[in-house]
Write a structure and sequence with these properties.
Length: 164
């Protein structure tokens, strides 16, 4: 596993801790339409058109509900399972661990990283809702969106470097 692949895995998994669908959709689109990522079985299912449509719809829902006070907290509760799983998947993809002898280590690393970031995000959001009566939720959500986007862009750059 190269350093660039490992950095990509950390970036993708971190983004999954904020929003599960952004890195999954990015990987699906890159694998389907570019040569930056080539997915092996069983993860090549992500390139299926229906999976891409589903991820897009889920992303749009997440981007919307994450900006609404109280609804965002219900979403974070639901995402407590989804974000770490997404983090595990994208860490394994980004690190190239799927074809390795011990991909379980990559899965565990992704679970822990995305789960930790999700937990921190959820705690900050609850505290901000209490302190600002929900008025800052949309601004914090937009900041999280930008941070996840930057993490994904940096991760894609590292994946591109790893492929050179």
């Amino acid at each position: 596993m190269e350093l660039t692949s490992l950095l990509a895995a950390f970036g993708l998994s971190s983004a999954a801790g904020i929003n599960a669908y952004k890195p999954l959709l990015t990987i699906a689109l890159l694998a389907r339409y570019t040569s930056i990522i080539a997915l092996e079985e069983p993860l090549s299912i992500l390139t299926n058109g229906w999976i891409i449509i589903t991820l897009t719809v889920l992303l749009l829902i997440e981007l919307t509900v994450d900006k609404i006070p109280l609804v965002d907290h219900m979403n974070d509760i639901i995402q407590t399972v989804i974000r770490p799983i997404a983090g595990a998947i994208v860490f394994a993809i980004g690190s190239g661990a799927i074809g390795m002898a011990h991909p379980i280590l990559a899965v565990i690393a992704g679970l822990i990283l995305a789960g930790g970031i999700h937990t921190a995000k959820s705690v900050v959001r609850v505290k901000s809702t209490v302190l600002t009566v929900g008025l800052a939720n949309w601004a914090i959500s937009l900041t999280e969106d930008v941070l996840a986007f930057i993490a994904i862009l940096v991760a894609i750059f590292f994946l591109w470097l790893a492929g050179m």
